[in-house]
Structure formats: C-alpha cells, structure tokens
Design goal:
This protein is mainly β. It is 0% helix and 44% strand. The protein has a 7-stranded antiparallel sheet with strand order 1-13-4-5-6-3-2, with no helix packed on it. Strands 7-8-9-12-11-10 form a 6-stranded antiparallel beta barrel. The chain starts with a strand and ends in a 6-residue tail after the last strand. The model has no long low-confidence stretch (mean pLDDT 85).
C-alpha cells in the first residue's frame, strides 16, 4: 500500500549545487526508508517513477529525482513482449532529462516504446542501495535512439515531469 504524501508535505528544496532533490514531510516515523521508490503524476499522465528516497529523518525524507545526473536505476524497455535491460541515468544537468544506456545492440527498441523499472538495481553495486525499488514501475517512453559500440543509447521522455509534480506516493516495500 503506497504512502500518499499530500501537496502540503512536498517541499521543493532550493537546488544544492544544482542537484535535483525534493524534500517531503514524511520520514522514518511513517516507515519511509532509504532506497524506496517515489512515484508522482502530472495532469493527464500516468503515475510514474520520479525519484528514490536518498536520506531519511524521523519526520522528513530527501528524494533524489531520476532526472539528477547522479541518479542511476536499472530499467528495461518493453517492445512487443520483449524486454531489454539498460541503465537509466539522469541527464538534467546536461540539458536533457533521462538516458537509458547499455541496451544490447541486438535488442529490438523503437521510438515510443515504454520504459519501466527492472527491479534489479540492488544487485548492480550502484552508489545508492535501491533494492527496495520494485519492478515494472512506469518511467517514460523512448524519444530517440543512437548506437554506441555494442550498445544502444536511448533518450527517455519521463511520463511524469519531476519538476511539475505537486504530490507524490512513496512505495513502502515490506519484505515478506
């Protein structure tokens, strides 16, 4: 059951050296933990991943937006029943939003294909332990594709613009 964070509980933090982070007035007292997925919605669009809980106090949490250059999450493209794994990185500071890299060159991917979380992030040895991020959370769709060596790289348009989101949900992962 996701934890709803209302509009009054979302505070956009002033950019710390340009980092894309928002703060919410929910914390460990509300079972929020580092590495949990945060979803949001912009009018007319689906609920989609906008960030990951980066740090928590009793009553607040900082969420690193997926558009931030230090954000890295495992993701997969969906193309006619075939899923292809890649690494989703934030590109906001480079003038665009999201990039999916390390997609196998032979993988069938086309513009418009949806991209979702892969749920494997905890195994990738990334800077933030994201083991609490479930698979199959919508992220966005492919805008453009280029080939780089043995891989394909796709620019991704997020389904929910993290800069426009007014309230969010934290996915409280409970180990069974």
């Amino acid at each position: 059951e996701p934890l709803e964070v209302t509009r009054r509980e979302v505070a956009v933090r002033s950019p710390d050296a340009g980092r894309r982070v928002i703060t919410i007035a929910r914390g460990s007292d509300d079972e929020v933990q580092v590495g949990m997925a945060v979803i949001g919605q912009t009018p007319g669009g689906p609920a989609a991943l906008i960030g990951i809980v980066e740090s928590v106090t009793q009553r607040s949490a900082a969420i690193l937006l997926i558009t931030d250059i230090s954000s890295q999450i495992s993701a997969r493209t969906l193309h006619e029943q075939r899923a292809s794994l890649g690494l989703l990185s934030g590109q906001w500071q480079r003038g665009s939003r999201l990039q999916l890299s390390q997609i196998d060159r032979s993988a069938p991917v086309t513009i418009g294909d949806p991209v979702v979380t892969a749920g494997l992030t905890g195994n990738l040895g990334l800077p933030l332990d994201l083991a609490a991020v479930p698979a199959d959370i919508p992220i966005g769709s492919i805008d453009s594709i280029t080939t780089s060596g043995q891989n394909q790289v796709a620019e991704i348009r997020p389904f929910a613009d993290p800069d426009q989101v007014r309230y969010v949900w934290v996915i409280l992962s409970h180990d069974d």
